[in-house]
Amino acid sequence: MPARTSSARSTAPDSAGTTRRAFLNVSDAAEYLGLSPRTLYVWRHRRQGPPSFRMGPRGRVMYRVEALDAWVREQEQADSRSNPALNPLGVRPQERSAPFTTV
């Protein structure tokens, strides 16, 4: 049986001169991110997670490698452990402007 070829396997050389794929299917994207394919399906259904799109006549769900990398960078910046500006321990506690009075 001949091997299946797919137009989704677009490749481009990276800076090291090796060939790398520009698009990944769900299982490859999950492996790339260290997640299960089921997690990506759930996130897609909930409109969460990295951006994805449908490609080709069969409408296969695909991910751009560049979009996955950008999404990971966004996650790092949104985490207070990676972004010192978001660390709540580095901020002084807020003081109340006026005490509560009960009537």
From TrEMBL:
<feature type="region of interest" description="Disordered">
    <location>
        <begin position="1"/>
        <end position="20"/>
    </location>
</feature>
<dbReference type="InterPro" id="IPR009061">
    <property type="entry name" value="DNA-bd_dom_put_sf"/>
</dbReference>
<protein>
    <submittedName>
        <fullName>Helix-turn-helix domain-containing protein</fullName>
    </submittedName>
</protein>
<feature type="domain" description="Helix-turn-helix">
    <location>
        <begin position="23"/>
        <end position="75"/>
    </location>
</feature>
<dbReference type="Pfam" id="PF12728">
    <property type="entry name" value="HTH_17"/>
</dbReference>
<dbReference type="InterPro" id="IPR036388">
    <property type="entry name" value="WH-like_DNA-bd_sf"/>
</dbReference>
<feature type="region of interest" description="Disordered">
    <location>
        <begin position="74"/>
        <end position="103"/>
    </location>
</feature>
<dbReference type="InterPro" id="IPR041657">
    <property type="entry name" value="HTH_17"/>
</dbReference>
<feature type="compositionally biased region" description="Polar residues">
    <location>
        <begin position="1"/>
        <end position="18"/>
    </location>
</feature>
